[in-house]
Amino acid sequence: MPQLSTSAILIRRIDYGDYDLILTLFSLTHGKMSVIAKSAKKSSRRFAGVLELFSEMDAVISTGRGLPVLQEASLKNPFARIRALPSSLAYASYWAELIQDWMEAQVAQAELYRLLRYVLGELDQERVPAAVLSIVFQMRFLRLSGHSPNLECCVGCRWEMAAIRPGAIGVDVAKGGIACPACCSAVDDVQYLSKGTIKQLLWVSGGDLGRAGRMKFSPQAIDESLEFLERFVPHHLGRQPRSLRVLRQLRGDGLKAEGGRGKGGGGKAEGGRWKAEGGGWKSEG
Asked: pTM here?
């Protein structure tokens, strides 16, 4: 039976029967893959500590007829702190859900793999605010998936962004980008973006990933960017990710910002309203 070896990040796990697990791996060499880990729940030694959500591993997978089988897995990066904080878990779940729902199976996406590994690592170490990481991830994810928003000129009349007066740059989500005052007059529920925010969004969508993650966003820029991206992404995905609903609830109702990190930057969960389960979320009340 043919085998392949690859680095992979576990983005989803589902119980299968009494002992097995169905896993979705996002791999460096083969993109998104569904595999079965046989007897993973029965044996405490075979995959000990490896098959936790968002862990990075070196995997050996047997391929052939039927579902590929995870034969071996060794832990590279556990990213354990992500699973200990509800806000971090919600952000990571949102990013993973976008990959799960939007990326074609068995198609290598090495740049997206490095992006996911980067944001998970920074989230785990708390070196960069979670909200900023989410802005960077979403902008780059949109570019890599071919859905970059048009932030350089009006999507209606093609008027360049630099020529539109400050404070009047609206967003036409349906048409995929910014709109001048005349063209956004017919848009329902218009959101406006400052020129500074637009320039930052354009900058973080490409270039050096580490430098993009270190960019300083003002509280206004964070709020504008998150509101824009969390409307734009679901619209073009075609549905509202469940993890995004949970993230918004945690960020707005169940989290208190700590350490001046701003919206989505940290905090503690209150009320125990949600529980992560297999890459998704389950309400507990």
From this structure: 0.88
Please write the tens of the pLDDT for every residue from 162-200: 999 988 899 999 999 999 999 988 788 889 999 999 999
Q: What is the DSSP string of the chain?
A: --EEEEEEEEEEEEEETTTEEEEEEEETTTEEEEEEETTTTT-SSTTTTTSSTT-EEEEEEE-SSSS-EEEEEEEEE--HHHHHSHHHHHHHHHHHHHHHHHSPBT---HHHHHHHHHHHHHHHHT-S-HHHHHHHHHHHHHHHTT---B-SB-TTT--BGGGSPTT--EEETTTTEEE-TTTTTT-SS--B--HHHHHHHHHHTSS-HHHHHT----HHHHHHHHHHHHHHHHHHHTS--HHHHHHHHIIIII----TT--TTS-----TT-EEEETTEEEE--
Distance CA 241, CA 101 (A): 9
- Tokens linked to 87: 């806000």
